[in-house]
TrEMBL record:
Function: May play an important role in maintaining the flux of carbon towards starch formation.
Protein name (Swiss-Prot/TrEMBL): fructokinase
Pathway participation: Glycan biosynthesis; starch biosynthesis
Residue stretches making up the Carbohydrate kinase PfkB domain: 19-326
Top-rank taxon: Eukaryota
Catalysed conversion reaction: D-fructose + ATP = D-fructose 6-phosphate + ADP + H(+)
Enzyme Commission code(s) on record: 2.7.1.4
Length: 338
């Protein structure tokens, strides 16, 4: 179990119910220096830290919350760079492991002229896929109030078993479980495998955040705007909150008691990378302060408007982590919207 001088605990106390522990992938995104071109046409690329769970951890820390990240990178320059970026952004990175046999994952990402994102992943296998159960920082998971994860770590063994073990530890410790499937179809062996893998842990979560596209995919083509589709096919009895994001249009929310919609905020978009992760950061930061937010519709709507603003501000700058806002940024932005 390799550890490293770049690790940081940032003074996280025992049984910190406001601590959000994010589990999953941490990688390098290479983004073109020129916008609106395909990967083949891009003349040069800029490296940026990526990986949805890691982005969420940074987003929470930037909002002034308490967060930690658990995952695996390569025992290489990129891996140590990523661990240091977490530390520099006040994320507890003591759960990061370094694999001497595999490289840190790389992803080339571009936004083409037609607005579609194009991904090219280098993971055969990457270090995050080789995360083993015995490498988990069990004590750190048990300190969490919220345990947040995606679905990419479910694609291959041993990371799948490690993911399931971590969820089990969190559930037993009384953590609130948060799930953002973050569908990346190119990484799964087939669409059927993706659907099955994502749904295999669906009924464990307290909170699920999905996009309109993911609803269409997971339901086999049903109308993503239909409340009936969401409530009959995706809402499960243990769920405290289901959120459907609609990009710049805002989001919808569903609980056992109520449902509704919170409009988006108006911004000039430069780069949509990390907007969903910033939104999740905003939601989880509010819930970490007080989990009863999910039962109070007025406060939940305020929390979702705050999260919409987090996502909106992130698209006004390039890159995910550098563009994540502080709490003051968000509050000032919202006060100017009135």
């Amino acid at each position: 179990m390799a550890t490293d001088p770049t690790s940081a605990t940032n003074g996280v106390s025992e049984n910190n119910n406001s601590l959000v522990v994010c589990f999953g992938e941490l990688l390098i995104d290479f983004v073109p220096m020129v916008a609106g071109v395909s990967l083949a046409e891009a003349p040069a690329f800029k490296k940026a830290p990526g990986g949805a769970p890691a982005n969420v951890a940074v987003g929470i820390a930037k909002l002034g919350g308490s967060s930690a990240f658990i995952g695996k990178v390569g025992d290489d320059e990129f891996g140590y760079m990523l661990a240091k970026i977490l530390k520099d952004n006040n994320v507890n990175n003591s759960g990061v492991r370094f694999d001497p046999t595999a490289r840190t994952a790389l992803a080339f990402v571009t936004l083409r002229a037609d607005g579609e994102r194009e991904f090219l992943f280098f993971r055969n296998p990457s270090a995050d896929m080789l995360f083993r159960e015995e490498e988990l920082d069990v004590a750190l998971i048990k300190k969490a109030g919220i345990f947040h994860y995606g679905s990419i770590s479910l694609i291959e063994e041993p990371s799948r078993s490690t993911h399931l073990a971590a969820m089990g530890i969190a559930k037993k410790a009384g953590c609130f479980l948060s799930y953002d499937p973050n569908l990346r179809l190119a990484l799964w062996p087939s669409p059927e495998a993706a659907r099955e893998g994502i749904m295999s842990i669906w009924d464990q979560a307290d909170l699920i955040k999905i996009s309109e596209d993911e609803i269409t995919f997971l339901t086999g083509g049903d109308d993503p705007y239909s409340d009936e589709v969401v409530l009959t096919k995706l809402f499960h009895p243990k769920l405290k909150l289901l959120i459907v994001t609609e990009g710049s249009a805002g989001c919808r929310y569903y609980t056992k008691e109520f449902k509704g919609r919170v409009p988006g905020v108006k911004v000039k978009a430069v780069d949509t990378t990390g907007a969903g992760d910033a939104f999740v950061s905003g939601v989880l930061n509010s819930i970490a302060s007080d989990q009863s937010v999910c039962q109070d519709e007025k406060r939940l709507r305020e929390a979702l408007l705050f999260a919409n603003a987090c996502g909106g501000l992130t698209v006004t700058e390039r890159g995910a982590i550098p563009a994540m806002p502080t709490k003051d940024d968000v509050l000032q932005f919202l006060s100017n919207q009135k």
